[in-house]
Amino acid sequence: MADDPELPSDALLRLANAYGVTADYWGFDGTHKVASAGTLRAVLAALGVDASSPERIALAAAFVEDMPWRRTVPPVVVVRSGRLAHVPVHVAHGDPVEVWLELDPEAGGGRRDLTQADVPVPPRSVDGRLVGRATFTLPVDLPLGWHELRAEGPSAGARCPVVVTPDKLELPPALQGRRAWGLMAQLYSVRSRDSWGVGDLADLAEVSWLAGRELGADFLLVNPLHAAEPQAPLTPSPYLPTTRRFVNPLYIRVEDVREAAYLSAADRALVEWAGEPVRALDTDPGPIDRDAAWTAKRAALEVVFAAPRSAARQAAFDAYVEEEGAGLETFALWCALAERYGPGAWPDEAMDPSSDLVDAARTELADRVEFHRWLQWVADEQIADAHRAALDGGMAVGIMHDLAVGVHPQGADVWALGDVLATGASVGAPPDMYNQQGQDWSQPPWQPDALARAAYRPYRDMLRTVLRHAGAIRIDHVLGLFRLWWVPDGAPPSEGAYVRYDHEALVGILALEAHRAGAVVIGEDLGVVEPWVRDYLSERGILGTSVLWFERDMHGAPLAPEHYRPLVLATVTTHDLPPTAGYLAGEHVTIRDRLGLLTEPVSVVRAAARAEREQMIGVLRERGLVGDDPSEREIVEALHRYVTATPSVLVGVALTDAVGERRAQNQPGTDQEYPNWKVPLADSAGQVVLVEDLFTSARLRSLAAVLNADIG
What we know:
By secondary structure, the chain is an alpha/beta fold. Helices cover 37% and strands 18% of the residues. It has 21 helices and 26 strands. An 8-stranded parallel sheet has the order 23-20-17-14-13-26-25-24.
């Protein structure tokens, strides 16, 4: 696994295991991989553990073994509803202790006294004192919610959250006993004549209503709408945001902000002038220019922000600010600082949210902080409008949001949540058949112990914001709730190691917050996945993901539709592949050849792609889904008929497939070499397809008819 010949000692392996670092794994090619000692030391260092010498390893091992005994109560307890669970309480040996629960007000409130279980545990000498452990039983009939455990005694006075999560997240009533299909779209690419160069939340509302009312769809999956930088240059990838909790105001429709309708003639002219040059970009087939769109839109939004608000509108804004609390305040302050210092290096003191400089900036930049809070409120209102339009259009689910794996290493979350995000390593993936050098996504991972010490509140708050106006949520790389591939700074992606997470806690809290929101959860569980993980997710009510091109039987043939998993979102394609028309034409080979990403001769790879295509068409022909000489459109529709023949509860249709687009939205393994996340929606001839065109698209309606015939 590494050029470093040093194998880890048994002591280093035990220490790594104690901190959740997995020293070995099975590669995509079936070979057993073992991390070097250097890799384990570097990953442990990123976890805040010094393993630089045998003596340091021994000290760290003793420290982690004693850690639970130093705490009166755990930092957080996460349990499943209806299941017996115990909580350890540590006090001076022989001291009495009283333990009870204060129930979540949202679950009815009240107090529940806990009884001590007969679980004898010998006392332990910790830091020169004898510590005893009392074990208390949690009632099995606790309601779902965020409760608080309290422990009081002569040597104890502590509290911790007790989170009771659903044993299984049930499908909402609208999906009980039925299947549903929906569209999948990259919102920025779906523009209308009134967009400002980028698809926005008004466009989302229009497409949602169309998909539900006119086409019979039940959901619309969109790319992550997480916030980007507050000024140019904006990171194009929606999967590399500055924060996952708040929204990118780039998606706001300026004219739909209520105060825009009451501007003076002079201010209205300012808004019109700001939008005029970027509206012309709506029909441009070239790469989407987010920087131009946001520069224009921000100028216009500043005019609208300065307009007076009615008493009712101001009260609604104030209520939103109060509900979002310190998290919104901190994010808005970061945005104001980012405007002040730009994309370059900040002063050291500015990097510390608790510094005197930052404290002074709260006052100095108060107007800008208020502006960025207001942007989030406006975006929240427009997302709510889009979700309402989807439901009013007849959708059973509505908007399905997408949650990115992580955040930008210089973003707002890293600045505000530095204590729960690791430094010295980034998230990535080990080598696989498509990326044989591995991948480094540059995103700082959650620090497992620190996240637990924070009682998972940063994670919970993020989920609540994303789920507020959602009928479903897709979790990108859901395996990250179980383990993540940590790449130490300066190391190649192949020289990483897996770090385990408390999946019971992370999946449980996800299920609880989705239950409260009435939302479906879909985990993107593609790639090399241990079988028990998929079984576990299914057991907890988290749907999986199946992509037709990746589903193979033990002989390497396309998996028969009847053998697909039922509890999944099944699709023909994914945003990391060209649209189906492009894939059938070998576009995925052409792009990688042009960019020098192939590890085999292009003739070999192209021959394999042709063989894959012909094999798939042969299967379609055997099932009577195509004739002897099918057209591209007939093959695309047949592939979707193939997927609708599965028992999968949800079926997704890429909007690009519905209009004949061939260009990929993203080419993994590239940055500037390909216009990733900048490709506007277009048809097979490269002509831009606007939202207005979707209402009269014969190809879209024909594909929708296929879905409705087999699922509706």
